[in-house]
Amino acid sequence: MSDATRRSGPGLDTSVPNVARMNDYFLGGKDNFAADRRAAEKVLAIAPEVRDMAREANAFIGRAVRFLVGEGVTQFVVIDSGLPTQNNVHQVARSLDSGARVAYVAADPVVLSHARALLATDDRTAVVEGHVLNPDALLADPGLRRLVDLDLPVAVIIRSALQFIPDEDDPFKSVSVLRDAVAAGSYFVIGHAVFDVRPEAAGPLVDVYRQVLGRAEDASRTSAEVLRFFDGLELVEPGLVYARHWRPDNPLSTLGRQKTWSMGGVARKTGH
User: Range of 84's domain?
Assistant: First the structure.
């Protein structure tokens, strides 16, 4: 019996693919079902580099968290946290500052159940239900506010949720609400796939995710469009770049690798 089967729980429809479990499959995890694997294989048939992109996106978040702790940030809000993996935000942050506090936010019941089971005895983490498109409710959640003081700098990490939200839902406005709600000195970390170098893959991949998400709109974006999420913020060097190029631990590791197209950026809220 797989880990996913043991953890499926009552009321979970395992016949419907799930983005979080698909990403778990890309990362080599075991918390996925046959429907997730079939959908993920459709993605990989179009763009085999997606597996590398998932790993690079995770590594980018880890490097960003280390940078932020170095800047004195000790509280984190992780939106669209994904299924728990190795090197979660709280683990990376606490390897440098044992007092770091992390609130994980997810709308996906699969992610919520897994994360709550993993972190049930950790009083410096919270797992709360919320969605980036409902920023006011997200920030008002009692579980989040128990750990996070919005009058002090906080790091808001949006791993990949935005790349699945079409412009029709105005995710740019939602990010601006979050930006306005946090204190000066706060940071935003945003990851997003783009299609600048693989425009031919956009249509087929969008079709797969339309089926998975049950939506008709196209949420694909270019790097210039993703840059809008950082409006009103000051990007730190090297800016919005492909994930593996954001402050790599070893610059040589970015050479001679398959081209991928997942981007990441870190930006600071300045002023009042």
Answer: 3-268
Instruction: For residue 60, give the CATH number of its domain.
Output: 3.40.50.150
Number of domains within the chain: 1
Q: Cα 229 to chain center, whole Å?
A: 14
Cα separation of 95 and 100, whole Å? 9
Per residue in 171-212, pLDDT (tens digit) is 999 999 999 999 999 999 999 999 888 888 888 999 999 999
Cα(257)–Cα(240) distance, integer angstroms: 19
225-257 in b/e form (b: 16+ CB < 10 A) is: ebbebbeebeebeeebbbbbebbeeeeeeeeee
**pLDDT, tens digit, for every residue of 86-129?**
678 999 999 999 999 999 998 888 788 878 887 777 889 999 99
Degrees to nearest 5, angle at CA 199 with 46 and 38 = 20
Q: How many residues does the chain have?
A: 272
In this prediction, residue 194 carries a pLDDT of 93
Q: How far apart are CA 130 and CA 266, in angstroms?
A: 22
Confidence at residue 2, expressed as pLDDT on a 0 to 100 scale? 43
